[in-house]
User: What shape does this take?
Amino acid sequence: MRGTTIGLTIFVAAVLVAAAASAKLAGPAGQKTAYNLRLGVCDWTIAKTGDPAAFELAAELGLDGVQVSLVPKGDSLALADPALRGVFIQAARKARIPIASFAIGDLNDVPLKSDPRAEQWLAKGIDIAAAMNVKVILVPFFGKGELRNDPAGIDAVVAALKRLAPKAAARGVVLALESYLSARDNLKILERVGSPAVQVYYDVANSQDVGYPILDEIRQLGAHIVEVHAKDIKDLYGKGSMDFPAVRKALEDIGYKGWFVLEGTKMPLGVEESVRYDTDYLRAVFGISADDGFQDVLRSPDTVTVITEDGTIGLTREGGVWRAGGIEVATNVRDGRLRFEISAPEAAVKYIEARWKGDLRADWKYLGDAWERSYGELEWQPLDAGREMPWYFLASDGGTTHGYGVMTQAAAMCAWRAGAEGIALTADVRCGGAGVRLGARRLVVCEVTSRRGKPGETPFEAARAFCRQMCPAPRLPKEPVYGFNDWYCDYGKNSAESVLYYAAWVSRLAPKGADRPFMVVDDGWQATGGGTGHGGPWDRGSANFPSMPGLADGIRKAGARPGIWIHLLTAQDGQPEAWRLAHNPKILDISVPEVRAYVMETVARLRAWGYELIKHDYSVSDLAGYTRAAPKADAEWAYADRSRTAAEIVLDHYRCIRRAAGDDGIIIGCNTIGHLAAGLFELERIGDDTSGRDWNRVRNRG
Assistant: This one.
């Protein structure tokens, strides 16, 4: 299987039935009926001026469109280049986010009233807008372009607009004027120009800031308003000086149906989190439904609870930090993800539980991942608040599929639950079964991420995109990996002779070319214990395998590539008691530095023998039991190093294997924790054995 196990859910087939329901947002009293404006955002507001990446980010933030900057390039504009226009069009289509309008912000420094380049840019902008089917170009008059108390400047602008208006009208484009002028003065300019291709772009905050009665102005301008900027110059929307419910009423009174474009100026939560906040607020005030059931988990949770060895502690929120009993959990958005951090100098912490209130659809279907691999239990199921969904989950109505999860290589074993009242995340930070003792260390627990599905994409496409989002740097093999593994016919009763026979056989079956099949020597080669999954030592073969380096060379000569299986953590005779798990001395304790050094030495030896692929097994079974990544809740044992979580310790183990295998070695994890291994190992088992002994098992979960 090429890729990482976080993609395993995308291979589950299921029938999805249901119709999408509207997302319900709690708006102010009296705002119960919907007023379905479309919400856009200025590309400069999300720090993507003139950048096609604005569309994807706008989609992630829950917006419906983007106001795109027309960036000057000499006497022309950058988007005059057809190739660049194609890039923007493709980006908009891919994100399913349209261009709401264009804007030429540079006109504030190159004024239409005094610089000939401004008129040239607008003329070219009309051509670009027509070519890209955009109906509105914002024409600003601020900075050097200010028109208040400048009658000569207004005369020059009117003259320029008269020259531009016929072309704009012929191409179906409207030039929308945004300024500090009053509604009355704007109407005078429109009357003098005398063209429906010149109208008003109304910015509620700009007009309020200079003292105009904006509600009266909106009603006075009426149908001349072709687009509106949503803005509050004091704070986040709903917390500052702008009365958005009253703005809604005024816009409804004039029958406005256009875009409401966010141009935020205050970003106390950072750009992305602030825009999300403002977007959610406007959807609540205007009754604007995204109609897609998406839940916002990239915000501070509604409740946070910590479970220690001494009991359960409900934390109290103070800004972005939750505190109680000497424990502190911080949540903050970084790079579009919600980061959880914990400080607990005195406590032995077991779990962190976070809950977000929401409105998940009972008529949608939900799919979770597995802790390590599938055993025939992965399927789309109805909403069930008691169902544990490791690492991430998908929600789908068949037409739209949303994703919620944590980034790979987290410092906790993370699981989700979703119910009618919202979403819960449990981060298991135990050190084995006991609580972790962090001392003075501040632990970055995990980073929550989510993906809003795109209408029309299949659940497979949505799952694949979300898995790549959770693991932005997967480690993939340079070419497809395929071949033969002797476990499925020999079950430990193998030999060097049988391996060479299979190597020649699979080589004959393989297509000609440089990408040769692998021949993996499975359980049975080790000095003792062949076929048991344990045994050892691993520094030599059994009597049936007299030369492991010679066997690797023989496989290669037969036309295949050598691979080998190993159970790294089986304790060997003579290894110190301090190296072993206290509760299970047959297994080595990977929190012990000497054990990690032994693991690296062992893996390096296999590579030195000439084996290109290493299949390491049982790291989940050694930790928690065969199918779980975390021990049962009543487990009390701990690793020798109590200061780190089990997830951190396992991740260190996987990183040691990676380093020892080298950059050119290929690693396949078997009975490993895929969400921790993603980005470290090239390959992961995603299903149970294809058994030659038990057909019912194969049919059920092979």
About this structure: The radius of gyration is 31 Å. Residues 151-171 form the longest helix (21 residues).
